[in-house]
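Late entry, evening session. Most of the bench is empty. Finally got around to the prediction I had been postponing all week. Sequence below, unchanged from the version circulated by S.P.
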Amino acid sequence: MILLDGKALAATIHKELKVSVQQLHERGIEPHIALLLVGDNPASLSYVRSKSRACEQVGIRSTVLQVSADTSREDVLDIVRQWNDDPAVHGILVQLPLPPHIAAEEIIEAIDPRKDVDGFHPVNVGRLVLGLPTLVPCTPAGIVELLRRYDLSVHGKHVVVVGRSTIVGKPVANLLIQKARWADAVVTICHSAADDLFRYTRSADVLIVAVGRAEMITGEHVREGVIVIDVGINRIDDPSTPKGYRIVGDVEFASVAPKASAITPVPGGVGPMTIAMLLHNTITAAEGTAWQKPLFP
């Protein structure tokens, strides 16, 4: 069984990205990402800080702006517009979720799609579906890069995606059905309407799980030799640990790993790859090649 070490792979990618950043510096370009946090959600604040630290480590300038949870929709839009108009800002990220009075879709659509380093703008989503060069959502991009770098081909394989979110499920399915040497898979998307989840998951050559339910996929759900990509990050109570909790995925690692040919750990699997792809997208945006480079080499 291969443990797909996203943390180690992300460290390798960071070294490669440092070289790209240095090349941009030599051209007089300082890659710069602006991150907006609305409110003080602890998890969101932690995510933003992690992203900012990773940017600084590879030489990308990061600006973090935190505003109160009662900031108006128009004020948030004004911040986005200012960053759109600032040539020194190459990437814009608005941390989700937003407070209930602000529609995330409206804010995302206000971002210049060439600065949309999250890859959520409808223009970038459309380009992804069409297989055109674009800024790819970071977690799906990280999954594909993980498979590529471990030389795990999905060509002609049955990939089952559990979860249909616009952040992971739908875009990773669209990536893996592309007619490309790193994709060309047969993809099934499962969700809450599936009459028999076991029927689908047991037929998977590659199983990608992104539903946000702790350890819902067990050894009974998978067949021998499956490749498992666990996107979930869930906190469950555990009095035996110093913090009183532990982090687990959407997959029950203990029962699934013995049957898998390859599997991601949680933490240390997909999460670090997501941040690595955010850095990659920021550099691509700074280069001005977001709609020119192929999705993957």
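Two things to note before I forget:
The domain at 138-271 is CATH 3.40.50.720 (Rossmann fold).
The chain has ten helices and eleven strands.
Will write this up properly tomorrow.
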